[in-house]
Amino acid sequence: MKLLVVGASYRTAPVATLEQLAVPPADLTRTLDRLLAQPYVAEAVLVSTCNRVEVYAAVSGFHGGLGDICAVLAEQAGAPPAALATHLYVHYDAAAVDHVFRVATGLDSMVVGEAQILGQLRDAYHSASGADSAGRLLHELMQQALRVGKRAHAETNIDRAGQSVVTAALDLAAGVLDGDLTGRPAMVVGAGAMGSLSVATLSRLGAGPLTVTNRGAARAVRLAESYGAAAVPMAELVDALTTVDIVVAATAATEPVLTRDVVTRALARRDPARGPLVLLDLAVPRDVEEGVAALPGVEVIDIDRMAGILADGPAAADAAEVARIVAGEVEAFLSWLRGADVAPTVAALRGRADDVVTAELRRLAQRRPEFTDDQRAEVARTVHRVVQRLLHQPTVRVRQLAAEPGGDQYAALLRELFDLEVPQTSPVDTVPDVVEAEIALPADTTPPTGGAR
């Protein structure tokens, strides 16, 4: 099996496209099942956050796997593969490992070094484990990615400012509101992970009074009580908007919560002397309806706007050290992977030796029927011991050599020398060891319907 990453992020796609691709938590298991139902996809982990949607997969062939994953993503987005082609990126084998580790360390984040992505990766991994869509390869990849992410934060200052997408967005909001959020009344719409982080950050920055609203009222009450905030029913959203200066919208709703109608009614009753109403839309799909930004007295900061402003974050100076850590960890993982790839060949060689010994012992028993059971057992032990000693050093050495760059040639040589039949994982595709490219699929691309699993 080979590793393949197919995805879109704030770097390659506008929010509108990420909205199409986004997979709500309720649909995650169903989407993973659809991926596993494809002919070339054996394992899958799906990451869907506010600024990226990515599939990490173990596939039996590059081209087949790419076609299968793109078909599922296109179905999710309700668009033909060709319409998504310019927004998707593809990483294969070594490049796939490098990308996943860069994501885990925050190097690929909108806010360089933000630690929230680690929790999101952990959630994606747990979801895949629960759906039984992560096998041996992705279990190892995800566990190592989470470890590498923790190591980067522990050994460098990549997150020295403790920044997340939330703190970065609030920094931008402060710029709109005279540079300070202290004493500014604020509201958080949504009580999930992002909403909780938003309330905590606003509290730390001295904003207040704080209000929390959520479709599930009980959850809003619990979050509000934790920070001395007030919880209001979603039905009272218009009234609440008239009393605040900052709104952080971070729900998992599939439709906008802050519609043009809701915001217009709130503005009509809000004192214009308060200054602009700043709406921070951190949700994908968007919580703020398109067109709200055009209303007078409103300032909307969304993922698209943040991507342009935060291209060079304050933690960028530490990125080189994290990149060095990632490079070393990628090579270590690839060494493990090469060693794992040679294991079936070693097993086949030992299996062949056992078959030969068994056949010879059977012939010996036929030629020398006078041997007692004890004599036959002693001969069998001796022959097995000789064979095992002969094979021990070569198999240990081939595992060591296989862990080095280009080590796959040693396994291939063993198969050739001993005429071993080892199932090949990619019988239909011949691709470079490392593929990293923007995909360009024709509109009528049809993924293969058969082939190796």
List the helices and strands and how they pair.
Blueprint: E1 2-9, H1 15-21, H2 28-36, E2 41-48, E3 52-59, H3 62-77, H4 81-84, E4 89-93, H5 94-105, H6 116-130, H7 136-155, H8 165-176, E5 186-189, H9 193-204, E6 210-213, H10 217-226, E7 230-231, H11 237-241, E8 246-249, H12 260-269, E9 277-281, E10 298-302, H13 303-309, H14 319-367, H15 373-402, H16 408-418, E11 434-438
Parallel strand pairs: 5-6, 5-8, 6-7, 8-9, 9-10
Antiparallel strand pairs: 1-3, 1-4, 2-3, 4-11
Helix pairs in contact: 1-3, 5-7, 5-14, 6-7, 7-14, 14-15, 14-16
Percent of sequence in beta strands: 5-15%
Q: Termini, distance in Å?
A: 9 Å
Strand arrangement, major sheet = 7-6-5-8-9-10
The domain tally reads: 3
CATH topology of the largest domain: Beta Polymerase, domain 2
Radius of gyration: 28 Å
Number of strands: 11
Number of helices: 16
CATH superfamily of the largest domain: Glutamyl-tRNA reductase, N-terminal domain
The top-level CATH class of the largest domain is: Alpha Beta
Measured as a percent range, the helix fraction is 40-55%
Q: What does the main sheet amount to?
A: 6 strands, parallel
Indicate the CATH architecture of the largest domain.
2-Layer Sandwich
Structural class: alpha/beta
Mean pLDDT: 85
Low-confidence stretches: 425-453
**Topology order in helix (H) and strand (E) letters:** EHHEEHHEHHHHEHEHEHEHEEHHHHE
- Overall, the morphology is elongated
